[in-house]
Design brief:
- The protein has 137 residues and is an alpha+beta fold.
- The chain is built from 2 helices and 4 strands.
- Strands 2-1-4-3 form a 4-stranded antiparallel beta sheet, covered by helices on one side.
- β3 and β4 form a beta hairpin.
- The relative contact order is 0.22.
Length: 137
């Protein structure tokens, strides 16, 4: 008989939030060197699934979309060939409240023993929020 699943690990809404990690690897890299530098992406996705196992499988499938074993990408600046590598999931969490068009909380962090000054430094003016930066990279 399986162990009971804790309520914190169930999604009453059927929605889940997954953090997917992938990185770019050039074909001429020393893959045995874990200290080498790379470009990595952390992608947060919301997905619908009946339980945590289904959510995990869907998140992994999503993470592997567009990933190929072939060195199909070329860095425009260096002309080096490479590929995106799916590393795995960094997080998988249930969404507890139904989505509302006026806003729904999907994630939270709890910070203990943090200074008020530090909390105030987290806050950005509207013009400084990423979504309002229209400059080209």
């Amino acid at each position: 008989m399986g162990r009971r699943i804790a309520s914190r690990n169930k999604s009453p809404t059927g929605w889940w939030v997954a953090t997917i990690i992938e990185r770019f690897e050039f074909e001429d890299e020393d893959t045995s060197n874990l200290q080498r530098r790379c470009r990595a992406w952390s992608n947060v996705v919301v997905l619908k699934a009946r339980d945590r196992t289904h959510a995990y499988n869907k998140a992994v499938r999503y993470g592997k979309l567009g990933i190929s074993d072939e060195n199909t990408c070329i860095d425009i600046e260096t002309r080096r060939r490479g590929r995106w590598v799916f590393e795995g999931l960094a997080s998988l969490l249930p969404v507890f409240d139904p989505f509302d068009e006026d806003g729904s909380e999907i994630l939270f962090d709890d910070f203990e023993n943090v200074s008020v000054g530090r909390v105030k430094r987290w806050i950005k003016q509207k013009k400084d929020l990423e979504v309002f930066d229209d400059s080209e990279p």
